[in-house]
From TrEMBL:
Its main location: mitochondrion. It catalyses: L-threonylcarbamoyladenylate + adenosine(37) in tRNA = N(6)-L-threonylcarbamoyladenosine(37) in tRNA + AMP + H(+). This is Glycoprotease 1. Its cofactor is a divalent metal cation. It comes from Musa balbisiana.
């Protein structure tokens, strides 16, 4: 496998990333260029702006195209593959979040269970084998990362670090039991998720404590009471993660009935870089006699390595497309 070398390109949300990975798992190079700085000024991911920033950054990786985020990456990949006459592999973003765990934990064999938690997705999947995934649960509204980001914004936190990391930090100072938010979906005995209701509860809690409404209609930014904000952050995080714990417990029970040989729960996606999330889920996993596999934080958040690695996994099983024509017109891509 050492002779396979894969370039991974990732442009699906607010980051632009690329990496070169060898078939044996060696990471030969990697770059992530975050737009968080740029986007924090606008309070979130603005698709048009993200698109433009991708193009600018991608220019530095050597090209010039301006379309929507994913197409920028896809076009770059096809152009390069065409010019250098190389085979190309299309990679699903969420599959890449899951499979990168097999790069960091070489004992991780199929089948395994995976919880994928990011800004746009909340998925519980049973990975039978490469390309065969059974979805046990998904969100019926928002993903947990979106709830972290909104809560952080409403609390007036510094979005330059990213809403999730800012909230995680503030929560360390708060009392997680100070507000009793209710745990979502308890009456639904399944593995699905919901974060819209928790978001609303948080917004109401903030509004009821608000003393100033000058700049942001819902923000405690002007309330000089860090403690009160920390309490909200910690209480939100406790319940947001309890919801994950409950769903994972049920998913483990379900999965073991389908595939009794399962030994691992993979937790990946941006929110999996959160230390509190990792600690709480590791308890759940251990109580069930399984092992937790969580990639290092830099491989949990969007990155090029996960894309390259997933490309390698597919390539080695013969799943790839032939090189595109070197002169392929853009509208054919
Ligand atoms: O996987 P990812 O990098 O991009 C998507 O595919 O969405 O996940 C981004 C999400 C954002 O919502 C971000 O706030 C969240 O992951 N996130 C965190 C942390 N780091 C990133 N959420 C909670 N705690 C963190 N430390
Ligand atoms: Zn992602």
């Amino acid at each position: 496998h050492d002779d396979v070398i894969m370039l991974g390109i990732e442009t699906s949300c607010d980051d632009t990333a690329a990496a070169v990975v060898r078939g044996n798992g060696d990471i030969l190079s990697q770059v992530v260029s975050s737009q968080t700085d740029l986007l924090s000024r606008y309070g979130g991911v603005a698709p048009k702006m993200a698109e433009e920033a991708h193009s600018l950054v991608i220019d530095q990786f050597n090209l010039l195209i301006l379309l929507n985020c994913i197409t920028v990456g896809v076009q770059k990949a096809r152009r390069l593959a065409g010019v250098f006459n190389l085979p190309i592999v299309g990679v699903h973003h969420m599959e890449a979040h899951a499979l990168v765990a097999r790069l960091t934990e070489r004992n991780l064999q199929f089948p395994f269970l995976a919880l994928l938690i990011s800004g746009g997705h909340n998925l519980l999947i049973l990975a039978h084998k490469l390309g065969h995934y059974l979805q046990l649960g998904t969100t019926i509204d928002d993903a947990i990362g979106e709830a972290y980001d909104k809560t952080a914004r409403w609390l007036g936190l510094d979005m330059r670090k990213g809403g999730g990391p800012a909230l995680e930090e503030l929560a360390l100072e708060g009392d997680a039991n100070s507000i009793n938010f209710s745990i979502p979906m308890r009456q639904h005995k399944d593995c699905n998720f919901s974060y819209a209701g928790l978001k609303t509860q948080v917004r109401l809690a903030i509004e009821s404590r608000m003393i100033s409404m000058e700049n942001n209609p819902i923000s405690l930014a002007n309330l000089d009471d860090r403690r009160s904000r920390a309490d909200i952050a910690a209480s939100f995080q406790r319940v947001a993660v309890l919801h994950l714990e409950e769903r994972c417990q049920r998913a483990i029970e379900w999965a073991l009935k389908i595939e009794p040989s399962i030994k691992y729960l993979v937790v990946s996606g941006g929110v999996a870089s959160n230390k509190y999330v990792r600690a709480r889920l590791s308890h759940v996993v251990e109580n069930n006699g399984l092992e937790l596999v969580c990639p290092p934080p830099s491989l949990c958040t969007d990155n090029g390595v996960m894309v390259a690695w997933t490309g390698i996994e597919h390539f080695l099983l013969g799943r790839f497309d032939p090189p595109p024509p070197a002169d392929e017109p853009e509208d054919a891509m």
